[in-house]
Amino acid sequence: MNQSALLRPDWTPATIALMILGFMVFWPLGLAMLAYIIFGERLRGFKRDVNQATDGFFASCRRPHGRHRPHFSTGNVAFDDWRKAELDRIEEERRKLDEMREEFDDYLRELRRAKDQEEFDRFMRDRKNAKRDDNGGPVAEFQTP
After folding, report:
1. Are residues 10 and 39 in contact, defined by beta-carbon separation less than 8 angstroms?
2. Are 57 and 30 contacting, i.e. CB atoms less than 8 angstroms apart?
3. Is the pLDDT of residue 144 over 90?
4. In terms of C-beta distances under 8 Å and separation of at least 24 residues, what long-range contacts does 3-9 make, across chains too?
5. Whole-number Å distance between alpha carbons of 67 and 91
6. Partners of 138 in beta bridges
7. Rounded to whole angstroms, how far apart are CA atoms 38 and 52?
8. Confidence bin at 4 (pLDDT 50/70/90)
9. Are 18 and 33 spatial neighbours (Cβ–Cβ below 8 Å)?
10. Residue 3: pLDDT over 80
11. Which of 29, 86, 94, 110 has its CB surrounded by the most CB atoms within 10 Å?
12. HEC readout, 11-50
């Protein structure tokens, strides 16, 4: 017998024992177990409904709908034309700003790379100088007995 058969939402010895134990330890646990026994069969449908509603909500969030509705019309052609021209201008400015941000990110990445290269070169130079003894000759790394 598997665990799911023991803890099904029904009046089984296991669920009754867990309910009594729950009331003895902390009364809300017993109450939760009682609710599971009584309403557990409806829980699957409730869970499915909640999952479908959540999926629908997040799917609507993923749909592209910008800050304006391009097909929205006020009825005034002059205003609608001006509004469209302004929105196009703002979109062009946004595109230029995105390009400038990408260029600046590339510039910063190149600066970091150059700084890292300079620090690495300095480390290698200092390491090479540390291996030389006071006489200017190289220091033996391993000494034989």
Report:
1. no
2. no
3. no
4. 8/40, 9/36, 9/37, 9/38, 9/39, 9/40, 9/41, 9/43
5. 11
6. 132
7. 24
8. low
9. yes
10. no
11. 29
12. CCHHHHHHHHHHHHHCHHHHHHHHHHHHHHHHHHHHHHHH
pTM over 0.85: no
136: left (phi over 0), alpha (psi -120 to 50) or beta: left
How many residues are recorded in the chain? 145
Task: Measure the CA angle with vertex 144, ends 139 and 145; round to 5°.
Answer: 130
Total Cβ atoms within 10 A of residue 7: 16
Q: Are 72 and 46 in contact (CB under 8 A)?
A: no
Q: How many CB atoms lie within 10 A of CB 16?
A: 14
